[in-house]
Amino acid sequence: MPANPQPNQTRRRMMIAAKLLRSALIGGILAAVVATVLMLSQRQSPHPAAPLTGEQAYGRILYNSNCAVCHEKNQLGLRPAPPDVHVIFQQGKLPSGAPATDAAVREVILKGRSPMPAFDQRLSQAEIDAILAYLHTGIH
Q1: Is position 9 within any domain?
Q2: Residues 68 and 108 placed together within one structural domain of the fold
Q3: Which of these, 30, 97, 100, 138, could form a disulfide with 88 (CB 3.0-4.6 Å)?
């Protein structure tokens, strides 16, 4: 038995306090990260999370597999970067300045526009209709 048990108890209390402090610090950091993520996610989409129709949901899938590579991620490193097409119907005009109508957007999708390739051999009319329906939502 040690002659003076006080130093062991003091050391033990200090270790417990250090663990509690670390736990509180980690908890605080996690809370700050969660709060930041929530804040940013609310800022990203100005539209309420309305459920998509079946056609719009299908359009989103088609958009993500055919368009997002360039129009969102610019994985090809194109300069200038392709425009954000989610806002064309809300803005009312295409990047070329032409009115943003279904017919005009359909034509760009079908025929392409440098450097965008034509999708007339890749997408059916129904698939283009679904992409247009999705783009009309303005949702990313």
Answers
A1: yes
A2: yes
A3: 100
pLDDT in tens, 79-132: 888 888 999 999 999 988 999 999 999 999 999 988 899 999 999 999 999 999
Task: Output the six-digit token pair for 115.
Answer: 């450097």
* Nearest CA among 119, 131, 139 for reference residue 63: 131
Q: pLDDT: is 102 or 27 the higher one?
A: 102
Exposure on the CB side of residue 115, measured as CA atoms within 13 A:
11
Q: Both tokens of residue 133? A: 């329906």
**How many Å separate Cα 89 from the centre of its chain?**
19
Q: Which residues pair with 99 in a beta bridge?
A: 93
Tokens representing 56 are: 């719009």
Close Cβ partners of 32 (under 8 Å, ≥ 6 residues apart): none
Supply the CATH number for residue 69's domain: 1.10.760.10
User: Which residues span the domain enclosing 1?
Assistant: 1-44
Average pLDDT of the residues in 12-40: 63
- Residue 48, classified by CB atoms within 10 Å of its CB into exposed (0-12), middle (13-18) or buried (19+), is exposed
Task: Judge if 37 and 60 occupy the same domain.
Answer: no
**Pair (67, 113) in one structural domain:** yes
